[in-house]
Amino acid sequence: QVQLVESGGGLVQAGGSLRLSCAASGRTFSTYARGWFRQAPGKEREFVAAIKWSAANTYYTDSVKGRFTISSDNAKNTVYLQMNSLKPEDTAVYYCAADPSVVDLLNGYEYRYWGQGTQVTVSS
User: Using one digit for the tens of pLDDT, what is the confidence trace for 46-62?
Assistant: First the structure.
């Protein structure tokens, strides 16, 4: 069993930055696929970024490429999402997810473990 706890959300002005953290307990999840998803009010959950094995295997949705960076610290069993140049349309609840056997990293239904979410609000 893996427990995921996100932190780092908050209110920021457009153009600002935030770093989200997702700490895992219960298992060493460095070999897991780890992803970030978000859900804005009235919208479906969408894929944001994912990492598998190492920084050499990272994936991003087009709208965040060049602005967001996913990384992991295996010693701390933590995955991060550095978010720069934030826009009001980035406002959402952000969730981290993990699973040892994901085939399609962009598909949230393939992730077994989820955090509780952290709110990110970007004001214009």
Answer: 999 999 876 679 999 99
Assigned token pair, 69: 């960076």
Distance from C-alpha of 121 to C-alpha of 18, rounded to nearest angstrom: 10
Residue 37's nearest CA partner among 107, 84, 100 is: 107
pLDDT at 4: 95
Taking phi over 0 as left and psi of -120 to 50 as alpha, with beta for the rest, 15 belongs to: left
Assign 3-class secondary structure to the chain.
Answer: CCEEEEECCEEEECCCCEEEEEEEECCCCCCCEEEEEEECCCCCCEEEEEEECEEEEEEECHHHCCCEEEEEECCCCEEEEEECCCCHHHCEEEEEEEECCCCCCCCHHHCCEECCCEEEEEEC
Please tell me the distance from the alpha carbon of residue 60 to that of residue 70, in angstroms, as a whole number: 9
